[in-house]
Amino acid sequence: MTDSTLTPVQTAQKMFDSALAKNKQRADIVFFKAFIAGAFLSFGGLLHVIVSGGSAGLTSANPGLVKILGGLVFPIGLVMIVLQGQELLTGNMMTVPMLLVKRAAPWWSLPVNWTLVLFGNLTGSLFFAGVLVKASGILSAEPYPTYLRNFVLHKAMDPHWHQIFLRGIGCNWLVCIAVWQAMAATDVISKIVAIFIPIFTFVACGFDHGMRALA
């Protein structure tokens, strides 16, 4: 009988091997996979906007429930990214440094990878927002334009910089846990559940994620 999960040591080795293989990919492939990841994450972001923005009455009566509902739909983006092996900056912030610690890659491979993936994620998110959302008009009717405007203004003006920084720590911690747990799982259903729980937690709690902000 095959175990449904790997041990922590086995997971770390598998993650190292994965990072090593990614480091050998051509730059254009890394960028394209990051582009796809940015678009995939935006699907989850779009669902979150549809649920949260379309629940104004429920938000007033029970804001906690709306956060729970948003947390239930957002993880779909990372599920698709991980199952298809795309490139998301948050996950690479955990895996690529492993290569440097083990001296399996030169130091400059880290900023090169992070820069490629960051701009790939950004480009994919902008494509999704501009073509699949803006041009398609799926959020053109109220209450979504007003909700998005208020949401962006709140995120840009209300939190202090140290609050954003600390929320980012909480979020990235949970995202890396999701990636780690997915790597430890050996079947698709287990991987989905392993990703879902931490991502649901960070969204429902209100932590801030850089890639989610792009989405």
Automatic annotation (TrEMBL):
GO cellular component: plasma membrane
Domain of life (superkingdom): Eukaryota
Pfam families, per the entry: Form_Nir_trans (PF01226)
GO molecular function, one term: high-affinity secondary active nitrite transmembrane transporter activity
Subcellular location: Membrane
Membrane topology (UniProt): Multi-pass membrane protein
GO biological process annotation, one example: nitrite transport
Transmembrane regions listed in the UniProt entry: 30-52, 64-83, 164-182, 188-207
Gene3D superfamilies: Glycerol uptake facilitator protein
Main location: membrane
Entry keywords, A to Z: Membrane, Transmembrane, Transmembrane helix
Family: Belongs to the FNT transporter (TC 1.A.16) family.
Stated name of the protein: Formate transporter
Organism whose genome encodes this protein: Rhizoctonia solani
